Amino acid sequence: MTESSVRGKCRALAVETAFNERVNIPEGLTSRPLQPADAAAVTAVMAASELHDLGEVVIEEADIVSDWQRPSFDVADQTIGIFDGEMLVGYAEWSGADRGDAAVHPDYRGRGIGTALAGWMQQRARAGGAAKVGMPVPAGSAAEKLLTALGYHLRWHSWVLALPEGAEIEPQPLPEGYDVREATEADRRSVWTVVEDAFLEWSVRERSTFEDFSAGVFGRPGFEPWNLRVVTDPAGEVVGASHVVLDTNQGNAFIAKLAVRRDQRNRGLARALLADSFTLARQHGARGSELSTDSRTGALTLYEKVGMVVTSNWVNLAIDL
Asked: Kindly report the CA angle at 256 between 296 and 168, in degrees rounded to 5?
């Protein structure tokens, strides 16, 4: 072993020891910052957690990869993994501002890992200048019970809705001069503007940069041009957009983003985008159709009126720092 490799191992050991002390993880486990190559392991932990709590797996590795590849996100600085030997058994990330995510493998719950991860997330968010930090968890889950016991409070409810098998959203006629079509590369900044403007009407956060937005949409692994649909007005301007992906776990279509410009609402454009996106996804092999919404948007009744039904309930819990 060379002198430089010895120094490298010593530095790695020092970093690991500091992390273990800071998060107070259970004896026998180790921790370290994660790296992009750990995306598959994180996906596996989250999938095991979802299967236990929801009875199905909704997370995909593409979700982790696209989130971590945002230019504003530093994987090594904003994540932590807890390991039993080489196996990842728990993870947390501070996504920026007041948002975080975490998961503990069901086989390792009840050992203090979740408490340690919550403590790390709070420390990291506080160091990043956040006044609070929170995350979504399934309603009634062990995670909700833990966070509530740690002093977290409810921020909002969210739901995943699905279109029952065999059901269809009746196509919505568009106003004269309007059109639904596949987005082109020239439309991308317009899509970003429409989506961000709409989301910022109810979401208290900074505007996502075009580069961060692109990482989660156009740069998402497996992205194909048909995944992004737009509505244009008679002048040819983009006034609405839908980002639909195929969930490789369930074979379902999932609307990741849906937005219509404020001055163009109440004309059936959102419903037209929904019908168009789900129909196109079925043509590409989707068996079912899903999306999510939360209590801040006021859109739950809209989706229920087109025949979608709630399949899971979530709560977003946060704590002041």
From this structure: 95
